[in-house]
Specification:
seven-stranded antiparallel sheet; 2 helices; mainly beta; six-stranded antiparallel sheet
């Protein structure tokens, strides 16, 4: 199995625990809790900032010495509505008590700036569609650079209809050369509908030094340390993924694979 493909360790509790050290990179961390009613998850943030994403279900959250009350709305991620999210700064603690079955994502990166704990959604999350034809996908921009809500983290949700592609045309963001490109590590948390489905993700560099094609299933996580990283959803299965990105600069600048850039230019004349 690819070192870039991470399977959940179970179906209950903390089923993913990606750290910068375990991933072999410097910025992105990702955790995932699958909780039953009454279960409690809690962690200190240490020197990292955190965005909690209620992927599914309801939980009562406390963080940074405040009671944020009941959070969560959608019971099925494929409802497509914007998620309830909470930013927690470095040097704080957070706790979530599930009141229904709950899937809680913990997105982390080094803490920079002086951002206070705050709700990030669903209010303030911009939903949009991107691409055309079989490249159409639907986006919930949780915390992209247009929202000045974090020092490092960039977080977004992507819904790819069955039979479509996303993170496509193939693109990369693995050089610290702003404004041409930014260096951003990236993790994907995948869901399929129906749940027994699968999707395909390829991670590759133009020189061929990295070229891995992975079959992803429900609740898998994939890592993108560098290179291009397109995804495909087979006919009959919708694909969701939660992206976490971070690097030395909180900006998303990328370059398309030159072999496939003609697709972008055709679909975006004048861009």
């Amino acid at each position: 199995m690819s070192r870039l493909l991470l399977k959940p360790t179970g179906v209950h509790g903390k089923v993913h625990d990606v750290t910068a050290a375990s991933a072999g990179w410097g910025y992105v961390g990702f955790g995932l809790y699958r909780l039953a009613p009454g279960d409690v998850a809690s962690e200190p943030t240490g020197d990292r900032e955190v965005i909690l994403v209620l992927v599914e279900g309801h939980a009562r959250l406390t963080a940074a010495g405040q009671d944020w009350g009941m959070m969560g709305d959608r019971m099925d991620v494929f409802d497509g509505t914007a998620p309830h999210c909470l930013y927690v700064p470095p040097g704080a603690e957070w706790s979530a008590t599930a009141t229904t079955a709950c899937t809680l994502a913990v997105c982390t990166a080094p803490g920079h700036g002086n951002y206070a704990a705050q709700r990030l959604g669903p209010e303030g999350i911009i939903s949009m569609s991107r691409g055309t034809g079989a490249n159409t996908r639907h986006i919930n921009n949780v915390a992209m650079e247009g929202r000045d809500v974090a020092g490092s983290l960039l977080v977004t949700e992507v819904f790819t209809p069955a039979g479509n592609w996303s993170s496509y045309p193939s693109h990369r963001h693995d050089e610290d050369d702003f404004p041409r490109m930014t260096y951003l590590e990236e993790s994907y948390y995948h869901r399929l509908n129906p749940a027994q489905g699968f999707a395909i993700q390829r991670v590759y560099t133009e020189d061929g030094s990295l070229d891995e094609t992975m079959t992803v299933k429900n609740h898998d996580v994939t890592l993108v340390p560098k290179g291009h990283h397109p995804c495909a959803a087979p006919y009959g299965y919708d694909l969701y993924y939660l992206n976490v990105m971070a690097g030395p600069r909180r900006a998303w600048r990328f370059q398309n694979d030159p072999d496939h850039d003609w697709i972008y230019r055709r679909d975006n004349p004048g861009a």
